[in-house]
Design a protein that fits this description.
The chain is of the alpha/beta class and about 220 residues long. The chain is built from eleven helices and eight strands. It has an eight-stranded parallel barrel with strand order 1-2-3-4-5-6-7-8, surrounded by six helices.
Length: about 220
């Protein structure tokens, strides 16, 4: 399972990249807006930090404008994956860009039927939103399981990118459900490191070493 960071914050990306476990980045207009920089400028900076798939979302909502914007975003860097919403215009755009060899991440997926449309249109990634489904009383992880099963049945090459992962449990459940990728906020990736027994064990190891080698009197 690949790990993507769902952020446009350069400091978070630099820290995550230093761990050696970040395979890519997903962004959206909300995340870009938080950083206060124009979309294309911020995406260029992100591409300089993380060597992996970088999802950059179109702002346009009509097909012809989305296609043109998608082409422009794809020219920024070889690692760009153009991100389109799962609307009629977004699916038309996905089909058009995919035929040109431009990779597309179809976002805001909430049903298996929508995921099937994206795969039919040639999407490179499909982004089902787990946490947002949980918010409205559904079990978001069931969507991941359904999509992976459908894609396996028909050998669609579209990769399942589990999005809106809000906890380490979400990440593990997405991996168990067969998602190819999990994208998560920096704080969730950071939380995956944590367990009290790890901290306790390390403290004990160091304390035992100190008793023998650092507290022993010097001979002579």
């Amino acid at each position: 399972m690949k790990f993507f960071l769902d952020t446009a914050n350069l400091q978070e990306l630099q820290t995550g990249a230093s761990w050696g476990i970040v395979d890519g980045v997903t962004t959206n207009p909300t995340l870009i807006a938080k950083e206060g920089q124009p979309l294309e400028e911020q995406i260029r900076r992100i591409c300089a930090i993380v060597d992996g798939d970088i999802s950059a979302e179109v702002i346009a909502t009509e097909t012809s404008a989305m296609v043109e914007e998608g082409r422009r975003l794809a020219r920024i860097h070889k690692n760009i994956v153009v991100k389109c919403p799962l609307t009629r215009d977004g699916i038309r755009t996905t089909a058009a860009l995919s035929k040109e060899g431009i990779r597309v991440n179809v976002t805001l997926c909430f049903t298996p039927g929508q995921a099937l449309l994206a795969a039919k249109a040639g999407a490179y990634f499909i982004s089902p939103f787990v946490g947002r489904l949980d918010d409205v009383g559904y079990t978001g992880m069931d969507l991941i399981r359904s999509i992976t099963k459908i894609y396996q049945n028909y050998e669609f090459p579209t990769q399942v990118l589990a999005a809106s992962l809000r906890s380490p449990t979400h990440v593990i459940d997405a991996a168990l459900a067969g998602a190819h990728i999990g994208t998560m906020p920096f704080k969730v990736m950071d939380m995956l490191f944590n367990h009290p027994l790890t901290d306790k064990g390390l403290q004990q190891f160091l304390a035992d070493y100190d008793k023998v080698f650092r507290e022993a009197p010097v001979a002579g």
